[in-house]
Known about the structure:
By secondary structure, the protein is mainly beta.
Amino acid sequence: QLQLVESGGGLVQPGGFLRLSCVASGYPLDYYSVGWFRQAPGKEREGVSCVSSSGGGTNYADFAKGRFTISRDNDKNTVYLQMNSLKPEDTAVYYCAAGYFRLKNFCSNYDESADNEYEFWGQGTQVTVSS
């Protein structure tokens, strides 16, 4: 069974940056599309970004466009989320999730369907943006 572990979270000032990592074990990660989701206190979980199994397709939430970059290194079974120009509203627990999509260049970044589309989830890593 695929297992996912996130890391790289922490406390940064507004305008700062973090790189999150999602390391997979138990199964080759290149079989799966990987999505990043986040949940802030008192708010619903929302999709952040995703990358297809091939790496050829990506999607970003509007709030992430131009600031966040998702990438993957299948040889290392790792997916990254580079977050720049962080804002206080980015404060949340960030989760990575893996799911199978038949189209190798496609992934879904909609939280409303994530529970059905992404079978495997990590435990999350805390990101706090505050001055």
